[in-house]
Specification:
- The structure holds two protein chains of two kinds.
- Chain A is mainly α.
- Chain A is built from 15 helices and no strands.
- In chain B, the strands form two sheets. A four-stranded antiparallel beta sheet of chain B has the order 1-8-3-6.
- The chains are: A mainly alpha, B alpha+beta.
- The interface of A and B includes residues 246, 250, 254 and 428 of A.
């Protein structure tokens, strides 16, 4: 055997050894990775949230780039600007989060107004046929009883409300009108008399159902603590990825075999572009929906602070298809029900019909979102079939609750784009 | 005292200099400086370009890219040898053998049109790759640097076009005579 043949033989053996080594290493890495992901699954969500924030923040960071400033200083400056904006936004928003007194007041007002509306409805229908009245009482009566059961203040809350009514905790006394509402609520009876009640006595304060078994306090505390420490990861990931200047990408590309080098660069780039376009588009869409609702509510005469708070919450939740609109409707109509002394800025509107106007506003916003915002901002970035959207949202909710619902569609878009891009590029590079 | 301190500083500087000079980053910048592609760039600009480049190592006979694949990056040879070849139905034609300091695949910086030839390592080869979209990114963040690179690329393509035209002009009279 000549020297050349010997060398070729050795090289072939080396290649086989290398392949076996890589395969064994990949299998071990997969097993270890799977084990770690399963064991540390509590960290997955904070990591995803931190990475997503960094991803969304990247264009802003690039906008702040100044040639003569070191990268770290630029990132710090952009962090400072974002921190300031978030601080002011949070501070403004916090002012509109109801405190203990306002929550009690809100419950009292909502219960009173709902009962008032129901009674008005029944009174209006009294002149009509017996069938209508019977239908109303049969269908809406039990519903109103359930609503009252949810909204009624428990003894402790009642005691607290009465304290606040007289001025408590450094706060001025609650308006006498709302104290009257409270008294009226106390006398509200059940609309449907339960057939099984032996005495037939109707009580507004029906005995509460036995409370569900609570987890032991220590266990709950430990779980909360571990959740809290896991969520510390989110800002840390955000910070480190914010400071990253392409090193993470370079590291992953360095792991790719030479054969797939250009392919992996192209696939990563296309994915980055598609997902970025979708996420930033969704953010802009949420902002536009929130803005439309806020402006609409202001035009309907709802105070600026409340309108902004409803707009922000509804805009943020608009990221969850269908659910966002439903929540906007619930919050908007909920407020419209308790709103008093509202003067619409649009002439000719009757303040008593505020609920209907809010309903129309939410529908208009939803239509605008579907017809104008989504096609204009997102284009074909999220071309996902509505059935897939519904299945993904339900699946996400079953797996991870509210977070699952929020991340279901981005996850579907990521997987869809990744698969489509990968297949296209693999074919273009003649690998498959 | 100050003279002694100065001498100590000088000694320290002399000791550190070779170490500093041999850092991979500086080596890379020194290498880029020697290439016509980047000869218009300052050290600072070269550092920016170097930061977005990927170092890839190829074994003997390993393919860098194949004819027909979409182009995505320009390759610069740090050391080693690369053969540029076209595969026919029965045989392979070797167009060139490139060595350290040469570059290939530069058309990929313009678009993702298919590669016109195969590139294969003839010996263990180290290359630097500049990805098209990274150069586009430089255009936004360091426009002057990216412009200089595009200008070099344009002038190189212009040179090639001129030499091709000359070749065509040299060949044309004879071909025409043959036809007549």
């Amino acid at each position: 055997m000549s020297n050349g043949q010997g060398f070729e033989e050795k090289e072939r053996e080396r290649k086989v050894r290398r392949r076996i080594f890589y395969l064994t290493f990949a299998a071990l890495a997969l097993i270890l990775g799977g084990f770690l992901i399963w064991k540390l699954r509590i960290l997955i969500l904070p990591i995803i949230v931190g990475a997503l924030m960094a991803f969304l923040f990247r264009p802003l960071k690039e906008r702040f780039e100044v040639r003569w400033l070191p990268h770290q200083v630029q990132v710090l400056c952009s962090f400072a600007v974002i921190g300031l904006v978030l601080f002011f936004a949070f501070n403004t928003f916090r002012k509109h989060i109801p405190d203990e007194e306002q929550k009690l007041e809100f419950k009292v007002r909502l219960q009173y107004k709902l009962n008032e509306r129901y009674r008005q409805l029944v009174a209006k229908s009294e002149g009509k046929s017996n069938a209508v009245v019977a239908l109303l009482e049969k269908e809406l009566g039990p519903l109103m009883d359930r609503v009252n059961h949810v909204l009624v203040l428990n003894p402790e809350e009642r005691h607290l409300f009465l304290k606040y009514a007289a001025g408590y905790n450094g706060k001025p006394p609650i308006q006498s009108r709302f104290v009257d509402y409270f008294r009226a609520n106390q006398t509200t009876g059940k609309y449907v008399i339960p057939e099984t009640t032996p005495t037939g006595v109707v009580s507004s304060t029906a005995p509460a159902a036995p409370a569900p078994t609570q987890p032991p306090a220590a266990e709950e505390g430990a779980s909360l603590e571990s959740k809290f420490s896991a969520w510390i990861l989110a800002p840390l990931i955000f910070l480190f990825l914010g400071f990253d200047n392409g090193q993470v990408r370079r590291f992953f590309i360095s792991l790719v075999p030479n054969r797939y080098f250009e392919l992996s660069l192209t696939v990563l780039d296309r994915l980055d572009e598609a997902i970025g376009r979708y996420l930033r588009g969704t953010l802009i869409e949420c902002f536009l929906v929130g803005l439309t609702l806020t402006l609409g509510l202001i035009l309907l005469g709802i105070p600026l602070g409340i309108a902004v708070a409803i707009g922000v919450v509804s805009g943020l939740l608009n990221a969850v298809p269908f659910l966002g609109t439903v929540i906007a409707l619930v919050i908007g109509v909920g407020y419209a029900l308790i709103a008093e002394n509202v003067t619409p800025l649009i002439p000719g509107l009757n303040p008593n019909d505020l609920v209907w106007y809010v309903l129309i506003l939410v529908v208009i916003t939803h239509v605008l979102d579907d017809v104008v915002f989504q096609p204009f901002v997102l284009g074909s970035a999220a071309n996902v079939h509505p059935l897939v959207v519904i299945i993904a949202i339900i699946g996400g909710a079953l797996i991870m609750g509210l977070w699952g619902m929020l991340f279901a569609i981005p996850a579907v878009v990521v997987v869809k784009t990744a698969v489509a891009t990968l297949f296209k590029e693999l074919k273009d590079y003649r690998i498959i | 005292m100050s003279a002694r301190k100065f001498a100590a500083d000088k000694l320290l500087w002399e000791t550190l200099r070779p170490w500093k000079r041999s850092s991979p980053e500086l080596d890379r910048i020194q290498f880029l400086k020697t290439l016509p592609f980047f000869d218009r760039l300052s050290n600072r600009q070269l550092k920016t370009v170097s930061d977005v480049m990927f170092e890839r190592n190829y074994d003997t006979d390993e393919t860098v890219f194949e004819e027909g694949q979409p182009g995505a990056a320009l390759f610069l040879i740090l050391d080693g040898k690369i053969a540029i070849e076209i595969c026919g139905e029965t045989s392979t034609t070797r167009l060139a053998v490139l060595e350290s300091g040469a570059f290939f695949g530069e058309m990929a910086l313009l678009d993702d049109s298919p590669r016109s030839a195969n590139a294969r390592a003839l010996e263990p080869t180290r290359t630097l790759a500049l990805y098209r979209n990274d150069l586009d990114g430089l255009m936004h963040r360091h426009a002057r640097t990216a412009c200089q690179i595009y200008r070099s690329l344009a002038s190189m393509i212009g040179d090639r076009l001129r030499s091709t035209n000359e070749l065509v002009q040299m060949k044309t009279p004879a071909d025409t005579a043959g036809l007549e």
